Structure prediction request, 739 residues.
Amino acid sequence: MSRPRTRRALAAAIGLVVAGAVATTSGSPAGAAVEQRIVVDSTADTVDAAPGDGTCADASGACSLRAAVQEADASDGAALITVPAGDYRFTLTNGDGDEDASATGDLDVNSDIRISGFGATIDTDWLDRAFDVSADGTLVVSGLTIVNGYAMGGEDPVVGSGGAIANAGSTTVQLVSFVGNRAEGPAASGGAILNTGDLTVRFSTFEANRATRAGGAIEANGGTTTIVRSSFTANTTGPEPGNGGAFHLTGAGEVEVSGSTFDANTATAEGGALWNSADGMMSITRSTVTGNTASGAEADQGGGGVYNDGGDLSIVGGTLFGNTADGEAGSGGGVLNNAGTVEITATDIIGNSANRAGGGIEANLGTTNLEFVRLEANTTGAAPGNGGGLHITGEGDAEISTSTIVDNVAAAEGGGLWNGAGTMNVIDSQISRNVASGAAADEGGGGLFNAGGTLTVEGSSIDENVADGEAGSGGGVFNDQGSLQVTDTVVSDNTSVRAGGGIEANVGSTELSGIQLLRNRTGGAPGNGGGLHITGAGNATISDSTVSFNTAAAEGGGLWNGTGAMTVADSFVGFNTASGVEADQGGGGLFNAGGVLEVTETDVFRNVADGEAGSGGGILNDQGELTVDGSRINRNTSNRAGGGIEANAGTTSLSDVRLEANVTGTAPGNGGGFHLTGEGTVDVADSRVVRNRAANEGGGLWNSDTGTMTVSGSLVERNLAPTGPDIFTVPGGTTTVDG
Prediction:
């Protein structure tokens, strides 16, 4: 059906040479439906002399492609049209009529027609599209190349769409190449194909097609679209709005893509390769999406590879590589999920980038689930630069299971994963070698960043991640005023510049159960909490866990608590080091900075405060409230004081504690087991203080001149020091020993 538009006159007919070809029609028994078999033998763009008479023949007796389509449409039954190899250019000799009988312009398909091309080329020379399939039509096209198709319209999204084919019925294209077709006009979509019916594309290629509005190669307005083992290269959309560089779905359609490739397609705004609508259902299986670009400038624009605008999107068994969201605040280099549902399974998402957030994936609200996914080497720019692998904006929900998050980079926060105000669950996954470079104290999270939401990690490994900004924190995980729960997970070999080599929590709630915090470390700015650091009045619970071989440049080699409450239960805290040089620094195992620290049924073993005046080899309680119950503080060392425990003022209570074999150095070397600095209160009950050693005073216990110490029901013996081997009290202090 020709659409009203401005046309240029066609200059030349076509250069196809078909020697000796004639039109033929196959017969069938009387009364039965027949399938016509028509062989095109002319390159002229001529009409059929008598459509429906059973013969494809123009006025000169030749069978052109136009005449063949007219004859097929006018006859009963289906038709097979064979087009020998050649080059077709339609000459619109009959004017600009708006009709449905293929008399002018594009070829109108109103019946059941198959066209087999054997490599033939249809070149419409920018004058019209090639085929217009009505709601009653069925078209199967194979072995053709369609170039320079053209559709132009105003505000009507149908009239100006589908540069090569407009389908309202049922169309199948296989082994067809679409090259350089265009749809132009404010509402023009589908540079090659507009589908409002049922479309199947097999073994076909789409290259350098363009649409003003959306769908550089294909626009589906509702309907059903199936794409199998086809390729889309260098297709583009214009600026109005510019979505879906290769494919765009409008409305409530269904799309299935399998075994296909999308390479170097571009969208002005969203979905460099594919764009799914709010009411759409799109599945992409075993396909490759590489090197596509979406350039939308807003935070909810981008999706360099795929954009899901509120619909249902499934990606299975594919690769998204090297896609880019390069707009000023563009997000989702690989995929952007805008308030929809996205399920990604067994897919590699590698080397994608976004300026704002979500180098691999951005989810703005909605639900995003990843299973057996590899998020690798994705990056964000600095605007602000969060979520190198995955970024969740707002109250979106995400689940990442049995996946690998590795070598991703964020300019600010969440090198691997970034969660907003929603819920993120990470299960049985590996999060390794990711980097976050934010310079502020509340930035970082090399592996994961939780921005006020709920983050749970279960059965996973978080290792070798880095927060390398000037004051970057949380090498492995950063919980910023949210809720963090980590279970049965190994957090190891992570680093940060400021604090929380393994985990940093800025206020909020942090619960660790059955985890291993191993070999994490902080730099020197200031360098607190090698394993875990809690900033401010946050609450933390550590149970059934191992905290070992962590290093802090200043305080809390293993664990560091701020002004909140920390509980450590049924755990092992051993072989950690804090290297702060001041007298109120150290705490090789644990450091309590004015908060409430409770240690229950825990071994604090062989931790070290090795700074020049480092104190509290096992624990340093700095003006806070410390309770230790049913635990062993054993074989810890410090340079200055408190080989086992140092208390700088505050309140300390020890009950059923084994304070054994702890040692201080010589600077000055006081309180091998326990040392109190300043005006503090200490209660030691039902405990053993045995075989501790101080280089100077108080091998077992040391009380200051303003301190109050009560020892009851406890065994204090076999401690060593030149002065006061078991208990030393500076004159002015009060020490009471009962039983």
The longest strand covers residues 112-123.
